[in-house]
């Protein structure tokens, strides 16, 4: 078990603790948890809360001691290397003919910071004000956004109700490569040159946001990697468009011959449409719920 200090050290995000099946029921997990808590209290007294993610399989004893902050749906699929092109074309076909949505654009680090300066973003796109990246429930504190930048997260944003002039005005001093520095291949998506003025955004839709975690190897054979897509917003068509474009960009940085296990995290209201959208892709993991839990230290 380990902790990631966030929110300028006031919150500890707990990472996974797993005990081998043959060692369970012996109090090992409880002993490790207590040791970790004691270490946190003595060495980081400024941390006043612990936040972590669980699933529908999280033991009731843990759920009862914590406050459930938010829940999201989880869909996971496997896309082998030899099926990658076919499956992406399948999803592209399902989006054909659906209009009224802007294509996602890649955000530069400065645009990410500006996006969260507008209260509309956190109020409408982020329930409870949490930016849940994979299994890490974070606030939009500037230090947390910097942490995600260092991890090479790809930020895509779309503003369905805004005009082109509201989204694409101004110029960049230099092009932005979201995968920098680990993968210097530039995105083929449009690069947002400017976000809408906050005074405009607050009176219109707050759009749709997605985060793509750089794919990393997992021990499933055949060069498989894991790839997480976090979706923020409630529009089904925008969600499907973001999934497709994140997969396209993932394909560009996958190792040669590699396939992917993809995890999609979305608001529970989007589960029926996203589940239907992913029909024809091989399911991977049966857990379909993610719970964000919090406890005071």
Automatic annotation (TrEMBL):
Domain Histidine N-acetyltransferase C-terminal: 104-177, 202-266
Domain of life, per lineage: Eukaryota
Name assigned to this protein: Histidine N-acetyltransferase C-terminal domain-containing protein
Biological source species: Xenopus tropicalis (Western clawed frog)
Phylogenetic classification of the source organism: Eukaryota, Metazoa, Chordata, Craniata, Vertebrata
């Amino acid at each position: 078990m380990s902790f990631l200090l966030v929110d300028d050290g006031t919150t500890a995000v707990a990472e996974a603790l797993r005990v081998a099946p043959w060692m369970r029921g012996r109090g090992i997990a409880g002993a490790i948890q207590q040791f970790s808590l004691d270490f946190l209290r003595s060495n980081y007294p400024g941390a006043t809360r612990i936040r972590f993610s669980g699933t529908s399989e999280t033991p009731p004893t843990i759920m009862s001691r914590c406050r459930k902050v938010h829940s999201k749906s989880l869909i996971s699929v496997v896309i082998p290397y030899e099926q990658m092109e076919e499956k992406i074309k399948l999803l592209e076909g399902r989006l054909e003919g659906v209009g009224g949505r802007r294509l996602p654009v890649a955000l530069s680090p400065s645009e990410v910071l500006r996006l969260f300066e507008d209260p509309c973003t956190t109020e409408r796109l982020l329930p409870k004000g949490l930016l849940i990246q994979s299994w890490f429930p974070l606030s939009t504190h500037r230090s947390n956004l910097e942490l995600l930048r260092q991890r090479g997260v790809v930020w895509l944003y779309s503003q369905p109700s805004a005009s082109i002039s509201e989204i694409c005005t101004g110029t960049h001093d230099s092009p932005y490569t979201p995968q920098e520095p680990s993968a210097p291949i530039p995105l083929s998506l449009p690069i947002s040159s400017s976000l809408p003025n906050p005074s405009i955004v607050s009176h219109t839709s707050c759009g749709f946001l997605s985060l793509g975690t750089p794919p990393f190897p997992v021990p499933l054979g055949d060069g498989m990697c894991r790839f997480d897509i976090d979706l923020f917003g409630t529009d089904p068509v925008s969600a499907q468009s973001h999934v497709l474009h994140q997969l396209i960009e993932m394909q560009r940085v996958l190792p040669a011959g590699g396939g992917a296990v993809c995890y999609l995290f979305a608001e529970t209201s989007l589960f029926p449409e996203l589940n239907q959208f992913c029909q024809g892709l091989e399911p991977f993991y049966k857990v379909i719920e993610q719970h964000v839990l919090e406890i005071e230290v």
